[in-house]
């Protein structure tokens, strides 16, 4: 059964904390990723000389079938992934606001903290810096480090684990995409799905939404900072004044 409030038995031995980036470390309503999404559509449109509506359909099909638009383009059109990443992340980060509550809560977690993203390190750094939380993380593992193999592919997680040395029996992963939590659950990690308030996903694809298959999801929360704060209760960290 998927829960909304952390239980002590699930978190008291966790020592590695793994966070997705987009729509996880910042809330869905900020819509930062919408800028990336538009850039990807524009890239596909220009690359293949397609009208924007057709390019968007193809982009979403690649995203659904291959984990990322980039992977689909690499497989089917042999593009330069670094050029794609650079153009996709030419966005305005000023829409993000510092989140000191989240920063303090992440800082107070015992052990190491990682960002594991299908985006790039520069994108992750700019995003986390705008949120005021970059300095709380030990490492960023991006799509380049994964050899351009994206989540939810098992190989992406294997590469992350080899580099980080994370012990999955003592680790938790936070994600906004349900399918990206299947492998972490199989590996023994505690899994936390971040969802928008009242499950108002807007124009999200069906596979991006919380569905009926939840056996691989231990917890669901609309409020990452609040959830991490509740996890800290397990460790008796309220006296650390992270709120």
UniProtKB/TrEMBL annotation:
Keyword match Hydrolase: yes
Key words, A-Z: Hydrolase
CDD domains: HAD_5NT
A Pfam family per the record: Hydrolase
This protein's record includes keyword Hydrolase: yes
InterPro entries in the record: HAD-like_sf (IPR036412), HAD-SF_hydro_IA (IPR006439), HAD_sf (IPR023214), Pyr-5-nucltdase (IPR010237)
Gene Ontology molecular-function annotations: hydrolase activity
NCBIfam families, per the entry: HAD-SF-IA-v3, Pyr-5-nucltdase
Identification of the protein by name: Putative hydrolase of the HAD superfamily
High-level lineage: Bacteria, Pseudomonadati, Pseudomonadota, Alphaproteobacteria, Hyphomicrobiales
């Amino acid at each position: 059964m998927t829960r909304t409030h952390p239980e002590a038995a699930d978190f008291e031995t966790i020592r590695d904390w793994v966070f997705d980036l987009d729509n996880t470390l910042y809330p869905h309503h900020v819509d930062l990723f919408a800028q990336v999404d538009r850039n990807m559509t524009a890239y596909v449109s220009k690359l293949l000389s397609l009208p924007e509506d057709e390019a968007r359909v193809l982009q979403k099909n690649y995203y659904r079938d291959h984990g990322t638009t980039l992977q689909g383009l690499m497989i089917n059109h042999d593009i330069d992934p670094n050029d794609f990443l650079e153009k996709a992340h030419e966005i305005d980060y000023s829409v993000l606001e510092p989140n000191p509550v989240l920063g303090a809560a992440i800082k107070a977690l015992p052990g190491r903290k990682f960002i594991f993203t299908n985006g790039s390190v520069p994108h992750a750094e700019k995003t986390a810096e705008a949120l005021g939380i970059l300095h709380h993380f030990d490492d960023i593992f991006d799509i380049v480090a994964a050899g351009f193999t994206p989540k939810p592919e098992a190989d992406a997680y294997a590469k992350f684990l080899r580099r980080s040395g994370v012990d999955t029996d003592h680790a938790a992963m936070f994600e906004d995409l349900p399918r990206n939590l299947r492998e972490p659950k199989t590996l023994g990690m505690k899994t936390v799905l971040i969802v928008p308030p009242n499950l108002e996903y807007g124009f999200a694809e069906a596979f991006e939404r919380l569905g009926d298959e939840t056996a691989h999801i231990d917890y669901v929360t609309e409020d990452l900072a609040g959830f991490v704060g509740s996890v800290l209760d397990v460790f008796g960290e309220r006296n650390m004044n992270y709120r």
